[in-house]
């Protein structure tokens, strides 16, 4: 695939001063493996009161200090033991440790590391709202691991307190196909601030209830209930002008949901057997030569035009939903619209004058005829974009 798959950016803000360890109710999560998604609850270290997702949220007593000494010996005296867990995350194979550290004289910032066998695999950057950034870190109140944005990766949701301000911090898990030390969790500042401002009381069960009506992905009764949850989430995730649409992308009678900031980025979701799948997750367009994303109704075909070198090289990509509910690349056609005299694949000085006068197609490095390229076209295409406001979408879904 080409450069139009979206990139995530990291916000890096630090808190200061001293800390306290916590004895609070925590929700543990459904660990999801992107290869083989499971809704089985993960049993983390029984070192705090536990409220399991999908339960009645009643507190279940556990022996809070039974592993404290071992955790301090393993991770150091600044480890916040009550919120340290051995978990399975979709970004890694096998179990890893989620380890938060209170500020100290040596390291004045609250920090979190993902650790396996004494090796640090990732460090989560702080995500603190401006209103609390100058306050001292006080506590890490709750931790939950679940897929909040329907993309199949495990995300992390924290509730923290700096000074007198409590807030949510959401970290998106990303790229399980990268090398193990390249995998990361990225703070999602806008979503974190929206959750903090709009959900009261600020607890993990209330976050789940506000976004998903208390349901876990896989428990939705039909696509209407599922898409209502997705649109509520998107209203918090995206602060720009949001629009929605219901389209029939593939052959079945269940529509797909479009969530879009028209002209900039779009997301596409599908539903099957109680579960929502993110086919497109905030894919950008409208810049860097990307013309946007089209689909052929009920033909399971997406088409994208992209270009380099001011249009001298054109890329036509066709994609389709596969049996795993993933948009797979069917073919990418590379068209050179210039006379590549030296056959190096790019327009050099003197060759620019021929741009637009030639057209030679390549598929996987071999030359392809116009007829072969046209064979991937599924019919009429229309752009994937939103046409409905949030209220209009939900009126249709209701």
Task: Give a short synopsis of this structure.
By secondary structure, the chain is an alpha+beta fold. It is built from 6 helices and 19 strands. Residues 1-66 have low confidence and may be disordered.
Q: In words, what does this structure look like?
A:
- The chain is an alpha+beta fold and 398 residues long.
- It has helices at residues 68-75, 189-198, 204-212, 223-237, 370-374, 390-397, and strands spanning 85-88, 95-101, 111-116, 119-124, 137-146, 155-162, 165-174, 184-187, 243-247, 256-261, 265-272, 275-284, 293-296, 301-308, 313-321, 327-336, 360-363, 366-368, 382-383.
- Strands 18-17-16-15-14-13-19 form a 7-stranded antiparallel sheet.
- Helix 4 (223-237) packs antiparallel against helix 6.
- The longest helix has 15 residues, at 223-237.
- The two termini are 38 Å apart.
- Residues 1-66 have low confidence and may be disordered.
């Amino acid at each position: 695939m080409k450069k139009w798959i979206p990139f995530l950016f990291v916000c890096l803000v630090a808190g200061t001063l001293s800390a306290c360890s916590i004895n609070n109710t925590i929700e543990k999560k459904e660990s999801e493996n992107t290869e083989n998604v499971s809704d089985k609850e993960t049993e983390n270290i029984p070192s705090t009161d536990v409220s399991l997702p999908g339960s009645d949220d009643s507190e279940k007593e556990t022996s809070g200090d039974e592993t404290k000494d071992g955790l301090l010996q393993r991770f150091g005296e600044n480890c916040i033991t009550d919120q340290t867990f051995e978990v399975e995350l979709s970004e890694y194979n096998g179990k890893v440790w989620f380890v938060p550290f209170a500020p100290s004289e040596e390291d004045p910032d609250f920090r979190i590391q993902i650790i396996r066998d004494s090796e640090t695999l990732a460090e989560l950057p702080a995500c603190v709202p401006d209103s609390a950034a100058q306050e001292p870190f006080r506590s890490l109140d709750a931790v939950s691991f679940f897929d909040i944005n329907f993309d199949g990766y495990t995300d992390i949701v924290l509730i923290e307190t700096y000074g007198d301000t409590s807030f949510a911090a959401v970290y998106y898990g990303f790229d399980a196909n990268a090398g193990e030390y390249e995998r990361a969790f990225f703070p999602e500042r806008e979503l974190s601030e929206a959750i903090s401002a709009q959900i009261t009381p600020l607890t993990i069960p209330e976050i789940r209830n506000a976004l998903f009506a208390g349901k876990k992905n896989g428990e939705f009764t039909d696509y209407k209930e599922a898409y209502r949850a997705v649109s509520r989430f998107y209203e918090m995730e995206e602060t720009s002008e949001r629009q929605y649409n219901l389209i029939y992308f593939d052959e079945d009678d269940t529509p797909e949901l479009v969530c879009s900031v028209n002209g900039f980025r779009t997301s596409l979701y599908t539903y099957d057997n109680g579960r929502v799948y993110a086919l497109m997750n905030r894919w950008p367009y409208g810049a860097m030569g990307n013309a946007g994303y089209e689909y052929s109704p009920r033909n399971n075909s997406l088409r994208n035009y992209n270009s380099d070198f001011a249009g001298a090289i054109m890329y036509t990509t066709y994609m389709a939903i596969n049996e795993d509910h993933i948009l797979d690349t069917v073919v990418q056609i590379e068209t050179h619209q210039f006379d590549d005299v030296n056959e190096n694949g790019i327009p050099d000085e003197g060759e620019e004058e021929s741009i637009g006068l030639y057209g030679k197609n390549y598929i996987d490095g071999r030359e392809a005829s116009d007829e072969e390229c046209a064979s991937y076209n599924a019919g009429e295409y229309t752009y994937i974009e939103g046409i409905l406001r949030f209220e209009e979408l939900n009126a249709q879904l209701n």
